[in-house]
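Internal ticket - ligand job 324, NDP:
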Amino acid sequence: MRRLLCRASAYSRSFSSSSSRPSSHGEEAIIIDGKSVADEIKQVVAKEVATFKKSVGKTPGLGVIFVGTRRESELYVHNKTIACAETGIASSCTKLSENASEEEVLASVMKYNEDPSVDGILVQLPLPKHLNEDKIMSSISLLKDVDGCHPMNIGSLALNRKQPLFIPCTAKACLQILLKNSIQLSGRYAVVIGCGNISGLPISLLLQKHNATVTRVHALTETPEDYTRRADIVISAAGCPNLVRGDWLKREAVVLDVGISHTQDPSSGDLHLVGDVCIEEARKVASVISPVPGGVGPVTIAMLLQNTMLAAKSRHENDYRKIS
Ligand SMILES: NC(=O)C1=CN([C@@H]2O[C@H](COP(=O)(O)OP(=O)(O)OC[C@H]3O[C@@H](n4cnc5c(N)ncnc54)[C@H](OP(=O)(O)O)[C@@H]3O)[C@@H](O)[C@H]2O)C=CC1
Ligand SMILES: Nc1nc(=O)c2c([nH]1)NC[C@@H]1CN(c3ccc(C(=O)N[C@@H](CCC(=O)O)C(=O)O)cc3)C=[N+]21
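stdout (structure tokens):
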């Protein structure tokens, strides 16, 4: 059987800063340290921001629109604000109530579209049910779509021989983690669990662009484990705790957990962040696991900053080039 990742090389990499060391028996999966992957990217972005400020005389800016009060979105907005401050990117957030009208949301997008201090725009998804997501996402200026979720960008991601202006951040984060760990994609069989517009769908399209053979499974798929058991790479983006069990996985599979849910500890009442993968079981079977927390999440944020910097550079291409 061709193996996705050579154990010996995986072990030598386990001493690097981006993954933690497996057990001394070498039986357990390497656990990816997404935070250190994110820190490396943020350091590069911070340098680019400093160069941009010197050459263009402006600060790159990100504008976020957040409708409602979803906990996962709040966490994302909170962590993004901190990461922007760390790298020197200016961030602003327009918060609208759960029952905001479509006109209000569209007006907020238009304001950011026209604001010269804003280089990138992100509309938090999902939106409340009464809002037309397609109409709202389509109203974002293509040049400012740093989330990569404008239908034109998603379309370009899906088309052969076409590149989107911006790759959706979560998909880009998964790819970065795979590449950093020398995990080959071309010709490999990958199963993506969940087909949501911000995570599962773009992830599957990006893997396909990198020549993986991809199956998407979703809530209506009968026996999804029939697919995952054959997969070299399993990426779960369903938002269902403990969905992916150890016996869903092929030995030596690479597993990236994208799902984020909050569960309550029955005794203390404390809230914990959990992914879709039962990590205690998966670590005995898989070769590499990206966990929740501390895996894809922090890298997604780093990718948003990277995309914002890309947008700022392309809007001010001539000035930025002068000194960089
Ligand atoms: N770590 C990160 O960087 C990010 C994490 N997330 C997290 O990823 C998760 C998914 O987000 P998002 O894409 O917005 O979610 P959506 O609600 O848009 O999509 C969820 C998908 O999962 C599928 N699904 C639900 N239950 C099951 C199940 N039991 N078995 C198989 N598939 C299932 C749904 O199928 P169907 O359509 O048939 O109902 C749907 O396709 C969430 O937990 C979110 O918080 C999101 C973005 C970034
Ligand atoms: N248009 C849009 N694009 C998104 O990418 C998007 C969205 N809407 N809506 C909400 C979801 C959720 N999401 C998260 C990303 C990172 C963390 C994150 O930083 N997670 C840390 C949390 C650490 C902690 O603070 O506890 C981790 O997993 O380690 C969380 C959540 C992006 N989303």
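Auto-summary: Confidence is low (pLDDT under 50) at residues 1-17, 21-25. The domain at 58-148 is CATH 3.40.50.10860 (Rossmann fold).
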